[in-house]
Every structure is written in C-alpha cells, then in structure tokens.
C-alpha cells in the first residue's frame, strides 16, 4: 500500500489553481478540499458557516481595517479561534489519507508533515483577467479589480498566520505559470512531479 502524502496548492486569482487542483486530485485518485473545509469546520464547531466565510482567505480581515475598527482585539481573537478550528479539520483530514488542499494556509498548518508538496500556481495578468471575467461574467476591468483585491486579501491572510511569504518562490516546492503550457498540460507536468517526489 502506498504511503499517504499531502499536496497543497496556493494560487493567484484567475490562474486556474482550483481547476488544476481538482483535475490533479481526480487523476491521482485522492481527496480534494477547498471551500469544503468551511462546511466541515462549521459542523465540528457548531458555529454558523457565515463566521468562517467572513474569515475566509478571500474575505479575510485586513490588519489595518481591524485596527481602524473599534473592536480590534475581539476580531483578532475571533479570527485566531476560527483559524484554529479550520486547522484542526485540515490536520484530521491529512492524518486519514492522501489529500490535496487548495488554499487555507494548508502548507503552513501541515508544515510538520514530511510527505508534503507545496505548489503555487500563477499565470499572466492577461490570462488571469480573462479567466476571471469569463467565470464571473463580468467586464475585464471588473475582473482586473477583483483579481487585485482577492490576491491582496489572500496575501494578508497567508502572511498573517504564516512565517513564509505568499507567492514567493522560496515558500513553495514548485511554482508553475499555467499560461505557459495551459491548464491540462500543467496538470500533467505537476502529476509527474508528484509521482517522482513520492515514488508513486
């Protein structure tokens, strides 16, 4: 029986990271988790999903926004608690079987797991804008603004809880520009990398 392993994927908005993650998990026949973590954390804690949605990496607090708000300490502690709940879910899933996580600071949460591969997906600005515009059915300008906002929040979320830097090559084992080969060939390349690393 193959020893279990973990794959984590960080990604820029519009880079196709979620699509790549889903296709990889399907090809490797391993579990896939992204926003599903929010639902699981809600069930485990008994808290409404809305609390976790508000602390999601896409809607994450800004340090300065919280500081400007008059309840910084309360928001900070709340965010820490919600993060810990999600972290425990991610660790439980990683302990059970091979799994692929998209986002959620999973690479940091699972940093002590030796059989882990951390990946970051990027793409050209033009491709990211086009993909977001098509997926959200919005204008190119709206897509550009949305990409910028989401990436800013992901960076804040990641860097707040993590000692590494979001999107920096030295924070990951493998960085891929999905614009170079396209989604499917990027998946094929990453799959080979995973198989080689874990001797699958």
What does this structure look like?
It comes from Apibacter mensalis. This protein has 200 residues and is an alpha/beta fold. The chain has a single domain, classed as Rossmann fold (3-Layer(aba) Sandwich). 58% of the residues lie in helices and 12% in strands. It contains 10 helices and 5 strands. Helix 1 packs across helix 10, helix 2 crosses helix 5 and helix 7 crosses helix 8.
Lay out the secondary structure.
Layout: E1 6-11, H1 17-28, E2 31-33, H2 36-45, H3 49-54, H4 63-68, H5 72-96, E3 99-102, H6 106-109, E4 116-122, H7 125-136, H8 140-161, E5 174-177, H9 178-181, H10 183-197
Parallel strand pairs: 1-3, 1-4, 2-3, 4-5
Helix pairs in contact: 1-10, 2-5, 7-8
Radius of gyration: 17 Å
| Class per helix and strand makeup | alpha/beta
Low-confidence stretches: 61-77
Strand order of the largest sheet: 2-3-1-4-5
- H/E topology pattern: EHEHHHHEHEHHEHH
């Amino acid at each position: 029986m193959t020893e279990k392993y973990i794959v984590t994927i960080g990604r820029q908005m519009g880079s196709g990271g979620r699509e790549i993650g889903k296709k990889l998990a399907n090809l490797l026949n391993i579990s896939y988790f992204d926003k599903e973590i929010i639902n699981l954390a809600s069930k485990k804690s008994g808290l409404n999903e809305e609390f976790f949605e508000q602390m999601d990496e896409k809607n994450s607090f800004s340090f300065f926004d919280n500081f400007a708000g008059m309840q910084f300490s309360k928001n900070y502690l709340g965010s820490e608690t919600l993060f810990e709940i999600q972290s425990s879910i991610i660790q439980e899933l990683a302990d059970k079987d091979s799994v692929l996580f998209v986002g959620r600071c999973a690479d940091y949460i699972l940093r002590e797991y030796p059989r882990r591969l951390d990946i970051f997906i990027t793409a050209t600005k033009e491709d990211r804008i086009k993909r977001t515009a098509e997926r959200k059915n919005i204008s190119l300008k709206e897509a550009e603004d949305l990409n910028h906002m989401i990436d800013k929040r992901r960076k804040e979320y990641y860097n707040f809880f993590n000692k590494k830097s979001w999107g920096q090559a030295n924070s990951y084992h493998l960085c891929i520009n999905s614009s170079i080969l396209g989604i499917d060939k990027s998946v094929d390349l990453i799959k080979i990398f995973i198989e080689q690393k874990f001797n699958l």
